[in-house]
TrEMBL record:
Enzyme Commission number, as recorded: 2.7.7.9
Organism phylogeny: Bacteria, Bacillati, Actinomycetota, Actinomycetes, Cryptosporangiales
Source species of the chain: Cryptosporangium minutisporangium
Protein name: UTP--glucose-1-phosphate uridylyltransferase
Molecular function per GO: nucleotidyltransferase activity
Gene3D superfamilies: Spore Coat Polysaccharide Biosynthesis Protein SpsA, Chain A
Pfam families membership: NTP_transferase
Length: 310
């Protein structure tokens, strides 16, 4: 049985873990030499959006769980004195600020996942860095619009209730088999802002169920706040769906042992960059929202769509 300290006083969350060791096979051949996390979404790598979100929520100690051939991810957050000097000489302050910004967002740490054994195993790789404190897990395929932040609300729920806090999203029936799905109980609480729905208590969870057997259509998306007890739970978790060590299974074990699990229902803007079609949609949506690119790009896009549909 996994030991739990559900009754203990909640601890302050300061660190974020970003699993980024996947092979990115859905984007081959683009990801043969370039990590999928560095594919540009407009003019910034997807990974930079995630680190920005972490830092904006006050989590400026970030651990990247990487794999073979992914050192470029760490390089992206390093200083580039040669490039900075060149931009400074040209007087290009806009690009200079952008280049420096990535190296100033957070303290970037790394560890290696020797082989891909699932999300649970990737999270476990961060155990020594995280230590005995709660932490956030942020998946790089899920971009949350900076105008609709969910992580601060999740951190607040964890500070008040302890245990596990999940980001939840209502998904269509045909998408249920892609996600971990939860059963919930109402708490009467809700998040602040139109982009946040109810705060619910999770009573059960299952990884990638058949739609006919799913307890709801509320899916776990790529934001978690976890207690350090999750590491022992993962160590005791056997391979599950897909033959991998599933984080959902480890969280379910803690839930069964009495750890409180809450969810914050998300109703805001989220961009899935893990699928090629959705990646293209994310680029278009974020480009349209940009003050510098949006007006001209939107005008072109409207004309293009009209031409293509006639």
């Amino acid at each position: 049985m996994v030991e739990t300290s559900a009754a203990a006083k909640p601890r302050t969350t300061r660190k974020a873990v970003i699993p980024a060791a996947g092979l990115g096979t859905r984007f081959l051949p683009a990801t043969k030499a370039v990590p999928k996390e560095l594919l540009p979404v407009v003019d910034k790598p997807a990974l930079e959006y995630i680190v920005e979100e972490s830092a904006a929520a006050g989590l400026d100690d970030v651990l990247l769980v990487t794999g073979r051939g992914k050192s470029a991810m760490v390089d992206h957050f390093d200083r580039r004195p040669d490039l900075e000097k060149s931009l400074e000489a040209k007087g290009d302050t806009v690009k200079l600020d952008a280049v420096r910004r990535s190296s100033e967002l957070a303290a970037i740490n790394t560890c290696r996942q020797g082989e891909p054994k699932g999300l649970g195993h990737a999270v476990l790789c961060g155990a020594s860095h995280v230590g005995n404190e709660p932490f956030a897990v942020m998946l790089g395929d899920d971009l949350i619009d900076e105008r609709d932040p969910i992580l601060p609300a999740m951190l607040d729920v964890q500070a008040r209730h302890g245990g596990i806090v999940l980001a939840l999203l209502e998904v269509p029936r045909e998408h249920i088999k892609r996600y971990g799905i939860v059963a919930v109980e109402q708490t009467g609480e809700s998040g602040e802002g139109a982009h946040l729905g109810e705060i619910v208590k999770v009573s059960a969870m299952v990884e990638k169920p058949d739609p006919d057997e799913a307890p709801s259509n509320l899916a776990i998306i790529g934001r978690y706040v976890l207690p350090p007890e999750i590491f022992d739970a993962i160590r005791e978790t056997k391979p599950g769906a897909g033959g991998e060590i599933q984080l959902t299974d480890a969280m379910a074990a803690l839930l069964a042992d009495g750890t409180p699990v809450h969810g914050v229902v998300f109703k805001g803007r989220r961009y899935d960059t893990g699928d090629r079609g959705d990646y293209l949609k994310a680029v278009v949506q974020l480009a349209v929202a940009r003050e510098d690119l949006g007006p001209a790009f939107r005008e072109w896009l409207v004309d293009y769509v009209k031409t293509e549909l006639t």
